[in-house]
Amino acid sequence: MLLGRRRSLCSLFGLSSDSMSLPRRRQIRTLALLFCVITFTTFLFSYTLRDPSLDFFKYASRLSDNLFFSSGGPCACRRRCMTEAEDDPWFAERFNRSVRPLMTRENSVLSDDTFKWWQWLQSERQPANFSEVVDQLFRVVPDEVQYVDAGPKRCRSCSVVGNSGNLKGAHYGGLIDSCDLVIRMNQAPTAGYEEDVGARTTHHVMYPESAVDLDNGTSLVLVPFKTLDLQWIISALTTGTITHTYTPVASRIKANKDKVLIYNPTFFKYVYESWLEGHGRYPSTGFLSLMLAVHICDEVTVFGFGADQYGNWHHYWEENTLSGAFRHTGVHDADHEYNVTLQLAEKHKIQLFRGR
Ligand SMILES: *[C@@H]1O[C@H](CO)[C@@H](O)[C@H](O)[C@H]1NC(C)=O
Ligand SMILES: *[C@@H]1O[C@H](CO)[C@@H](O)[C@H](O)[C@H]1NC(C)=O
Ligand SMILES: *[C@@H]1O[C@H](CO)[C@@H](O)[C@H](O)[C@H]1NC(C)=O
Ligand SMILES: *[C@@H]1O[C@H](CO)[C@@H](O)[C@H](O)[C@H]1NC(C)=O
User: Fold this and answer.
1) pLDDT tens digit string along 162-196?
2) Ligand 3: which of 202, 256, 258 to mutate, judged by most atoms within 8 Å of the beta carbon?
3) Ligand 1 in reach of 96 Cβ (< 6 A)
4) What is residue 142's three-state secondary structure?
5) pLDDT digit string (tens) for 68-82?
């Protein structure tokens, strides 16, 4: 009996449930016993009163909802929820649910502090009027609050797929694809690498300089580093007039306009301050994607982060000639980011698959 707490698709694919603590198992067993006793007596009761059986089922399901959904934890996943009640202090100190990861018209007004920090990231010289650009932006892409439906009936499993060479030969494809959301980033190809990295992509995180064409079913998640990036996405989906930022960029992009999401600069700054404690100039796309998942998913599995077994930091689709390319950009603190990722895994907030 699964007792309302759904075992996610993701975990069906070989993630063990060993991490379920003993007290929790005991609690579930007790609840199961209670459930059986109550349903049995209810059944007898309704049978002797010759109640219509429909009422019995209605009653039983309401009972089980109350018993197992409201007391079962903050989400319906069987293994664990991102925000368990008995939360870890290290996690609780950093995690702030009320900072929204995605931008809407309503939360697009940035504080002076946030705006200054964000403008400083890539030192944009003469930015366009931010609020006017945002206004245009939400005429082209949807202005919807999404993924805020966390609750005891939801089990959203997510895989976050980084681009590390440690995915080569790791055969994670099936596992990655079995999650509800599959989040990839930057150039990340799947064609020809399905066995190792999977084939589905529900969300693809990118910025203008790393943009690639997407399938109609995939959500483009734009991480803007400057006002021009917001102008670029408008242009790339419509007129194609912007061809250059600090470097040539794709003037048009194939992506479903109705599925475009915008990473919120306020959330970006929160990730940098709260999770990276100011290490590096700003977080990498990988870390930003991971934090997105931590905030919109109940269960997060992580692939393709960190170096490969030889300490190399190349991409899975490249031969190992660019080792160190990511680590030594001087923009991101890869060691610190990986440390935080390891901590999240140690505290069972994410499951980290280290590849080869
Ligand atoms: C969490 O974020 C909200 C909204 O940005 C902020 O008002 C609040 O102070 C933050 N909470 C903590 C504990 O930092
Ligand atoms: C940006 O545009 C808005 C509305 O058009 C205007 O009210 C605001 O003063 C402008 N901001 C700047 C910094 O020019
Ligand atoms: C893409 O998906 C949208 C719905 O989100 C649909 O209206 C449109 O026709 C699709 N386009 C293609 C090329 O499949
Ligand atoms: C990573 O964590 C270890 C132990 O927790 C610590 O000794 C090390 O200094 C950390 N490294 C970075 C780069 O933060």
Assistant:
1) 999 999 999 999 999 999 999 999 999 999 999 99
2) 256
3) yes
4) coil
5) 444 457 899 988 889
Residues 221, 241 contacting (CB under 8 angstroms): no
Q: What is the pTM of this model?
A: 0.81
**Is 203 in contact with 161 (CB distance < 8 Å)?**
no
Question: What distance in Å separates the CA atoms of residue 160 and residue 122, rounded to the nearest whole number?
Answer: 26
List strand residue ranges (DSSP E) for the chain, in order: 157-161, 181-185, 203-206, 219-222, 261-262, 299-303, 350-353
Contacts of 275 (CB under 8 A, 6+ apart): 94, 283, 287, 291, 340
Q: Which amino acid belongs to residue 5?
A: R
Q: Is residue 306's pLDDT more than 90?
A: no
Cα of 68 vs centre of ligand 4, distance in Å, is 40
* DSSP conformational letter for 184: E
Structural domains in the chain, CATH included, are 2-64 (no CATH), 89-353 (3.90.1480.20)
Give the pair of three-digit tokens for residue 210.
């790393």
State the distance from the centre of ligand 2 to the C-alpha of 131, rounded, in angstroms.
7
pLDDT at site 11? 55
What are 315-345's pLDDT values in tens digits?
899 886 554 455 545 677 788 999 999 999 9
Known catalytic residues? 282, 332
Mutate to test the pocket of ligand 1, among 96, 110, 114 (most ligand atoms within 8 A of CB): 96
Among all bound ligands, the one having the nearest atom to the CA of 336 is: 4
Under a CB-based contact definition with an 8 Å cutoff, are residues 188 and 176 in contact?
no
Place of tokens 């670029």: 232
